[in-house]
Specification:
The chain is of the alpha/beta class and about 170 residues long. The protein starts with a helix and ends with a helix.
Length: about 170
């Protein structure tokens, strides 16, 4: 029985080693990758939310640290993210019969460049966009923090998935 258990453990070790690193988040990371870097994402949108760059960059860094076993480095990681916030806007989306907006939409777009030093086929430059709607009787300033938090969370999930889950 002991010998049988040893064979199973060895077989599992070989299978896992051959597949590279796999985490329970679904991330598939090359076994050689040890570090990740996330550069600061400056806000280049016409409308500026002063906290957005810092909030987005921190959220992306936190996701990499919490969902992978990679070490965060300042620059030139084995897996590297950089880019900029290119759009931050609010627009009316549901017009009433009185020609006023019933809903407004806050949209954030981020341009991301990803480099995987061990597999160049995984490199990409892509724009990610998400939005949240809010009632037009509310001022953006009163709902902005909650909306941007929700949008940032969705953007980070999409970026993580494209870079490390290969969707």
């Amino acid at each position: 029985m002991k010998k049988h258990s040893l064979y199973i453990v060895l077989l599992l070790a070989l299978v896992c080693q051959g597949c590279g690193f796999y985490s329970f988040t679904g991330a598939s990371i090359p076994a050689e990758a040890k570090t990740v870097s996330v550069q600061y994402f400056p806000n280049q949108a016409q409308l500026i939310n002063p906290a957005l760059s810092n909030d987005f960059t921190t959220a992306l860094r936190d996701a990499m640290m919490n969902q992978t076993s990679l070490d965060m480095v300042e620059s030139s990681g084995d897996l590297a993210f950089e880019g900029e916030i290119t759009d931050y806007r609010t627009t009316p989306v549901a017009i009433t019969s009185e020609q006023t907006a019933a809903l407004n939409r806050l949209t954030i777009t981020v341009n991301v460049r990803f480099v995987n030093l061990f597999d160049e086929t995984k490199n990409f430059e892509t724009k990610f966009t998400h939005y949240e709607d809010y009632p037009s009787d509310q001022e953006l300033n009163s709902v902005q923090e909650a909306l941007t938090g929700t949008i940032i969370e969705a953007l980070v999930e999409d970026i993580f998935n494209k870079a490390l889950v290969n969707w």
